[in-house]
Amino acid sequence: MSSNLDSREQDLERLKETLAPSSECATLEELAELADASQPSPSRGRIAVHVASCERCEVELALLKEFESAAPRPEEEATVHWIVNRLRRRFREARVAAVESAPEPREEEDGFWRRIFRPIPTRGLGLAFATAMLLVAVGVELREGREPTLPSHVDPAAQVLRSNALQLRGPAGDLDRRPERLAWEPVAGAVSYSIEILEVDRSEVWKADVEQSSIALPASVAARLVPGKPLLWRVVAKDAAGRTLATSPMQRFRVRAQGASAVAPVPAAPGSQQSQVVFNPRQVANTQLIAIGACGSVAAISPSTATPLSFKVLSRSAPAGGTAQLTVTLTEPKPIATGCGAVAAGGGAFDAVLGAALFTAAGAPSDVAGAAVVDGTSVTIQAISPSELFGTDLLGAPIAVVTYHVPPDALPGEAGKMTVDPGSIWFDPAGAVYAQQIKPGSFEVAGSVSIDDVIPGSGFLPAGSTVTLLGTGFVPQTVVEVDDVPVTATFVGPNRIDLVTAIGAEFHGRRIRASNPDRFRASYYSYMRATRVGESSRALLARTMPIFPSGAASASFVAASTVAGEFFAIAVQNPNAGPATVTVDLRSADGEIASTTLSLPARSKISREVSELFGVSAPAGGFLAVQSDQPVQVLGLAGNDATGSVRPVIPSLALP
């Protein structure tokens, strides 16, 4: 018993330490001044910089703004009126000083916190005490645990009818090999069945109608079942008139990734066989000739003398069926030239990775490029920043996000850890290894609202542009805020809100927040999440998400630079609102070897190995020339199946 008490006391101490303000944290007065832009404040700039990098102060500021704008909902007014009147009567009976009547709405213009920080006259103490008692009374009422009263139009004795559920036989869960058929239990009276296979974001992969209770997977679908990538499927049973008789729940399945490490390996000891590759980031940035076999394959690491690089992973929550971003920030700016790191989200609260992005600053174009290899819910990212500005943002913007999908059947309260793997390796511009300090975050299935995607997610948008928010749990009263960009929001439906920008702004890396009346909110850092055009037949490349530099061009060149054991691929992304026709030529010093043309729909991308495009591998010293009728983003990818690693190769606007 005593050990349990000791453990609880330790947990409480850790909680107090976590929530305790630092010496740099803003006071409530300073936060109130920051929230009220109409009042002069010489310290506003300093406080704004601190709040951008301090999660505690960011939450305090959000709570302050909520209190400023808080008002009883219509259904709460009668209850609040009753509580206030009862408190007044009790105060009079106790001969407490008279309580003033509640102010009219027009008297609220000064703001809640500003009134609190004003000197309070003696006769106002009664009102202050009544307000405190009101909060206590409301809190007690909410915690009594009574079941809620049903609305008058709901008959508690009415019969609830449910449709028959169609039972799926398989495939389901993690599989050792690709399935050959889909099968389900037959339904009485059904003459046909409609089958759908979907991506986890509900985009359609394939559908068919059959009369039997099973169907063979066509080759085109089987080719998309790459290891580690989940898919969903469901079946609807119909009668002779085409009416729905039964619907199956959504079923998830995937083929297990074979021989791929879930997280980056811990650095090998100096002098071991694994650590014989010396990684020089400046040489890689300039020539793209040296690769690392896996995260941590460096000649020597001296954490005791290395400069610290402090990562902080922000905690997140999202409802079932929504998304959450694993968000990595630096507690203080440090330039990162290149490196390789892994992030992981444990606990089983996620079923798929939807995307990844790297940022040099919030709301700014970026030259940092990367390759993110997905294995379950672990993602290994190799990144390179030719300008060496990666990690130098002074306002505390995140350097990386990974977007995860929460399964629709996730239970409220399910939780897990979100962290950066300690085996990650990051280099400063001089080629020295940083010593990592990591503060992990957490995730919980909770809340009512989620931002799932932003379209377009990147690029400069002029004033008057329309931005579409896709998500879950939107209501007509949902409030949307875009950092530093005034917007007008239009509620379209529970899964969509349209925004119109009042000023021109770059949206890459810009934070967007949605708040519901129930005080749950969601945050999302914007980036281009383009649709894939098919899948590569090479499993490692199919599991790789290219992270493109922001710049787009109509002509670019990529040196097909590889080392022993590597294959070379090219990735092209069309960020435009219309289609693009792209010509890719494989060339050597002697001239053109082969050519192919790609058609990319709006906001789509493609990744293919050179041999898939041309039937031949790139020769030594060869390069790829890319030309398009629309500006596109290009990235080279050099992969190694033995180590499960893929590194980015920066394109050039001039012939190599």
Q: Specify the CATH class of the largest domain.
A: Mainly Beta
The CATH architecture of the largest domain comes to Sandwich
The overall strand count is: 40
First-last Cα distance: 71 Å
Q: What count of helical segments does DSSP give?
A: 11
Low-confidence stretches: 93-163, 258-294, 296-301
Main sheet: strands, sense, barrel = 8 strands, mixed
Give the count of structural domains.
5
| Structural class designation | alpha+beta
Indicate the CATH topology of the largest domain.
Immunoglobulin-like
Characterization of the model:
Helices cover 17% and strands 35% of the residues. The chain contains 11 helices and 40 strands. Strands 12, 14, 16, 17, 19, 20, 22 and 33 form an 8-stranded mixed sheet that branches. Strands 32, 34, 35, 36, 37, 38, 39 and 40 form an 8-stranded mixed sheet that branches. The termini are far apart.
Question: TL;DR of this structure?
Answer:
It is built from eleven helices and 40 strands. The protein is of the alpha+beta class and 656 residues long. Strands 12, 14, 16, 17, 19, 20, 22 and 33 form an eight-stranded mixed β-sheet that branches. Strands 32, 34, 35, 36, 37, 38, 39 and 40 form an eight-stranded mixed β-sheet that branches. Strands 1, 3, 5, 6, 8, 9 and 10 form a seven-stranded mixed β-sheet that branches.
